[in-house]
Amino acid sequence: MKSRHLPLMATILIFILAYVLCYMQFPAMLSTRVIGNLLTDNAFLGITAVGMTFVILSGGIDLSVGSVIAFTSIFVAVLLAGTGLHPLAVFALALAITTLFGAAMGAVIHYLEMPPFIVTLAGMFLARGMAFVLSIDSIPVVHPFYDTLQSLYWRMPGGGRLTLIGGLMLLVFILGVLAAHRTRFGANVYALGGGAATARLMGVALGRTTIGIYALSGFLAGLSGIVFSLYTTAGYSLSAVGVELDAIAAVVIGGTLLTGGSGFVAGTFIGVLIMGLIQTYIIFDGTLSSWWTKIVIGVLLFVFILLQKGILWLSHKRATTLEHAHGS
Amino acid sequence: MFFKSVLAGATMLASAVFGATAASALTVGFSQIGSESGWRAAETTVTKQEAERRGIDLKFADAQQKQENQIKALRSFIAQGVDAILLAPVVETGWESVLEEAKDAEIPVILLDRTVSASDDLYLTAVTSDLVHEGRVAGQWLVENVGDRACNIVELQGTTGSSPAIARKKGFEEAIAGHDNLKIIRSQTGDFTRTKGKEVMESFLKAENGGANICALYAHNDDMALGAIQAIKEAGLKPGEDILVVSIDAVPDIFKALDAGEANATVELTPNMAGPAFDALEAYLNDGVVPPKWIQTESKLYTQADDPMKVYEEKKNLGY
Predict the structure, then answer these.
(1) What's residue A2's pLDDT?
(2) What sections of the protein cross the membrane (chain A) (predicted)?
(3) CATH 1.10.3470 at A3-327, yes or no
(4) What is the Cα B121 distance to its own chain's centre?
(5) What CATH number should be reported for the domain holding residue B136?
(6) Confidence class of residue B293 from pLDDT cuts 50, 70 and 90?
(7) Which of A25, A287, A312, A313 is the mutation pick for testing B, counting most B CBs within 10 A?
(8) Residue contacts between A and B (CB atoms, under 8 Å)
(9) What is the mean pLDDT of chain A?
(10) Looking at the structure, do residues B145 and B209 belong to the same domain, yes or no?
């Protein structure tokens, strides 16, 4: 087992162990309903977390995604309520806007050599502000096409539902894994995360890759906003506050190194499931304060940061011993 | 390292294993908005008390003001197979699909203190107070106690445009309509807060000859009334005597003011929405009685004659 696989294995182990513990206390936790819920309820978080994984793999951060989700949901609701456009056309428009928005942030980061933290923080305020300009009220979406999309689900044995949005999240994760490990773009992202100077020497087009990464994150945040609007059949400018932080947490719990260069899209999937599992457990229990979710996630994050530090230290030590071995 | 991670995963489970609830007749899930106001915190406390009194196993989920958390909670309740769900919805829209899932699973849903825009066959009933009625009760009290003498009223409104402010104003005006001796001479927003209530009352007093022209104050909530009482005292007048004070909500502090003779009446917005909800639920599950789609809670009037300190003692630990 390579040491870079260690965080991923730890994530999977924690998930299985936590699930077993939950199951021992509440047998109903192992039902298709709960599994269906985990996928449906976390669909918007999962989709945006895939984008976040690429951003963090490249050594960056994207704080704008939560606001972009809120913007998209209200944008879709306002347009559907105010014009006769078909939802599919509105979706395409929303995705074009959010993708361009991400690309613009990527361009600023690359060409002006600004830290991603500041640029995407500005993006966060901008997108949230735009959402409020569109409407401060919660706007319901009433459209037959939405009813059709919502009625598309596969009823699993046991009454659980694999909904369209849950399935879409799975698809995005599969495509994300393929993009990360089977494409030139994915290789460039890992190279960029390993260090810009090295990446340039390897012949990676830094500008194109950076813009591509943030455009992808913007696109997926937009898609996540559409999923959110299907999830609640409404648009609301105050929704999805702090989702960017949940996404970052899912990526780190999923075993991706915050400094970039190492991690797996599949790990993020497990990270999202772990966070969903904690929430489900707390609701099943029904007596714990829901703020325990945050506490447990905080503890898990801390454990993973320590784990990553430990692995770095170990591999460094091994490298030096090897050098010594060669020297003698 | 693995051991440490396992430990972290186990911490969240540990406390619950010991606090596991005993099996009981009914299991009810309650999805609460959050604890943004004292009243809501009191509602949570009272709901828990009501459940305990009836031997209902209450699963409580605080949504931290987020609709997505409420939807998740509802889905988890359904997955868990609870007997019924109480929902205090954070917004009106976006509940159709999850309420349909509950209906499919034959789990009745009761709305508490707010309603949703979804079709009403998706929930069993809604238990809410009638905000207009609250204003009416406050107005009626004034009509009955002022008698025939001329009375100039100043009004402290809630947050501009908010539904309680609009409804409580409307109800009060309905109640005093037809009594020409009662007249609202000034009406301004005090934003439901104590400080704003005090500030606006100070300006009322200055504008109305130091308060000599004012006979009564109507405040859309107790907090503004409490601020205004302070302003009246600072102006050298006696609240409750020189200027009558009537307000709405019945928070604990207003009972202290009632006891001190500084306030005259308050209309209760009861935090006990769960009591009537559980009554309706038990009747429905045990005897098949289908409740009406709207259950109105009582808007009880409290005056100085109602032993305010006793009520204060009852209310002070509810979390207001």
Answers:
(1) 67
(2) 6-26, 38-57, 63-81, 88-112, 118-142, 162-181, 213-231, 264-284, 290-307
(3) yes
(4) 25
(5) 3.40.50.2300
(6) very high
(7) A287
(8) 145
(9) 92
(10) yes
